[in-house]
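Exercise (ungraded).
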Amino acid sequence: MSVDMKMPVLIVDDYATMLRIVKNLLKQIGFENVDEATDGGAALHMMKLKKYGLVISDWNMQPVTGIEFLRNVRADADLKGTPFIMVTAESKTDNVIEARNAGVSNYIVKPFSSEILKGKIESVLGKI
Amino acid sequence: MSSWPNDRGIYLQLQRLADFITKTRQELAILRPGEVKQEFILKAADELDAITEGTASATHRIMDAADVLMEVAGSLEKDKAAKVTDAVMSIYEACTFQDITGQRVTKVVSMLKVIEERIDSMVIAMGDMEPDAAIETEARKAIDAAHQAAGESASTLHGPALPGQGTSQSDIDRILAGEGT
């Protein structure tokens, strides 16, 4: 089944620059319907108001971090199936395992290329 | 067989110890730790904040220019448009440096806070023979708070790894695939 490129995608990062970069890269890949949030709390609120086909989130944010946001998503009966990719500078093995155990769909280390982003999205959603 | 020092020997040792402590306190006083804290560390933190703001501003300008190029690419022949688009994508990718820089600067600021805390401890230790109890109590509270904050922030997150450290993307892929640890 092909990926619906019109699906809403939610990107979460406290750096405006990163939001802009990821949004542009997603646009280039073909995703046009991209919303933004600057921390896990705001993002969870947005997810309760709108159904997203993919979430791409940073880890290191305040007041609600990416890992807390992920756990909240996985603990919510309505949201737990949402594909969730963590994009972060945190590359310690412990962090990766913690994210895996929390139910992350995939994990990208910053800095990254558009090819890596596309590849990880395809591994979660299917061929674009 | 060594003999236990007599009273005069003990007195001389204590005198040397007292002289050493006095000299050390004088040397520490010369370093003017209060000034180091108030002037240099605060200024260094401000400079680091300026780096973050400066790189953020520059990055947005670079991306504004890249957005213009993307618009222009739409009016070009297919081959040329593809080349321009690839180049603009490279610019976008390279702009992630700003995020990494910001996180590294945050780490350095955290380190400066630890240095500041050590200086506070030193100021208390080398203060007047009868330090003001209120000031000492205040300083100790600040140190305890800094300790607590440092402990919390260091609990799980490490920030960007230096080159050669951390876990590579391929290792992460293996972990997520259940092949490692």
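Further reading is listed at the end of the chapter. For now, observe: The longest helix of chain B spans residues 33-73. Residues 33-153 of chain B form one domain.
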